[in-house]
C-alpha cells in the first residue's frame, strides 16, 4: 500500500479555464501535504498524459485526477469513460470538479465510475474549503495500491482467464 503522507502527491488537473487553474494551484499551495500539480488543458492532453505519450512520456502516474467536464477537443465525460475502461488507469481516483450543476452530468459521471462529483464554488474561501476536504479525504484517509500491486493484481487476473 502506498503511503501518500510520505511523498508528494501527483495531481492531474484537467482544466481549460486559466482562472480555475490558478485558483486550484493557489488552494493546493496552502495544502498541508506536499503535492505536484500537472495540468492538462483539454481532453486530448489529459489522455496523452495518462498514457504517457509524446511530451508526456516521462510523467508520473497521477495519484488522483481532478477532472472538469466542459473541456475542448475531448470532453471530461469522454476522458472519464476512456480511463475507466483502461485496466491500468481505472484504479486512479477521479474527482469531477466542474461548474456544471446539471443532473445529467452528475448522473453520467457516476455511471462512468467517477469517485466523486463536486460543483466548483465561485469564491476562493469556499473553493479552499473544498480543496481541504479533497486533501483530507483523498490524501490522508484513503489507502492506495502501489503501481507494483496494481500490476500484480492485473497479472493474476490475466493468468486466471
Question: Secondary-structure blueprint of this entry?
Answer:
Layout: E1 9-14, H1 18-29, E2 35-40, H2 43-50, E3 64-67, H3 76-84, E4 94-98, H4 103-111, E5 116-119, H5 124-141, H6 147-160
Parallel strand pairs: 1-2, 1-3, 3-4, 4-5
Description:
By secondary structure, this protein is α/β, with parallel strands linked by helices. It has a single domain (9-160), classed as Rossmann fold. The chain has helices at 18-29, 43-50, 76-84, 103-111, 124-141, 147-160; strands at residues 9-14, 35-40, 64-67, 94-98, 116-119. A 5-stranded parallel beta sheet has the order 2-1-3-4-5, sandwiched between helices. β3 (64-67), α3 and β4 form a beta-alpha-beta unit. α1 (18-29) packs across α5 (124-141). The protein is globular. The model has no long low-confidence stretch (mean pLDDT 87).
Amino acid at each position: 500500500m502506498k503511503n501518500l503522507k510520505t511523498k508528494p502527491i501527483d495531481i492531474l488537473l484537467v482544466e481549460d479555464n486559466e482562472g480555475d487553474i490558478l485558483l486550484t494551484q493557489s488552494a493546493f499551495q496552502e495544502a498541508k501535504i506536499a503535492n505536484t500539480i500537472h495540468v492538462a488543458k483539454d481532453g486530448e492532453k489529459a489522455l496523452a498524459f495518462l498514457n504517457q505519450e509524446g511530451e508526456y512520456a516521462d510523467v508520473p502516474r497521477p495519484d488522483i485526477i481532478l477532472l472538469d467536464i466542459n473541456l475542448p477537443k475531448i470532453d471530461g465525460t469522454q476522458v472519464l469513460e476512456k480511463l475507466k475502461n483502461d485496466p491500468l488507469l481505472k484504479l486512479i481516483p477521479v474527482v469531477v470538479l466542474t461548474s456544471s450543476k446539471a443532473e445529467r452530468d452528475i448522473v453520467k459521471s457516476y455511471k462512468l465510475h467517477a469517485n466523486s462529483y463536486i460543483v466548483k464554488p465561485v469564491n476562493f474561501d469556499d473553493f479552499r474549503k473544498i480543496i481541504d476536504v479533497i486533501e483530507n479525504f483523498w490524501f490522508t484517509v484513503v489507502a492506495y495500491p502501489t503501481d507494483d500491486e496494481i500490476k500484480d493484481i492485473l497479472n493474476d487476473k490475466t493468468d486466471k482467464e
